[in-house]
Amino acid sequence: MRAAADPESFRLVIPSQTRYLNLVTGLAKRASLVAGMDDATAAKVSIAVDEAVTNVIIHAYRGESTHQVEIELRFREEALEIRIWNTGGGLHDEDVVLPDPKEYVKHPRKGGLGLLLMSRFMDEIHFKDTDGRSECCMIKRTPA
Prior knowledge:
Elements: E1 8-15, H1 21-34, H2 39-60, E2 68-75, E3 79-86, H3 101-106, H4 114-121, E4 124-130, E5 133-141
Antiparallel strand pairs: 1-2, 2-3, 3-5, 4-5
Organism: Mesoterricola silvestris
Keywords: Kinase, Serine/threonine-protein kinase, Transferase
InterPro entries: Anti-sigma-factor_SerPK (IPR050267), HATPase_C_sf (IPR036890), HATPase_dom (IPR003594)
């Protein structure tokens, strides 16, 4: 692997269509395994990526299939970093409110658990806007 200052990385750009989710989640799982994670952890990373990309397609792009979602996977010595960009708008760290799982069970509703799953399955999640694009950055530390 390269030094941490110059991580190995690659990008994938997909249309904003849910039919490409299997491609993205399969890639995320495989990248997690390559980074040294076990199968269970790799599956959780894949679920987090699925939730993040689905949120972009459904919420940022309102289901419109004519946009693009850009995904970058960076292999760092200490972690796998996954960045997801869109131009449809997004969250900021200060806007994120995670649902209380106990309340959710008492009063179930459709949706709302994606961010909670992402936060539970990843070590860090950050949201920001840069140069007219919204970014979700998720980090999963690799085993020592």
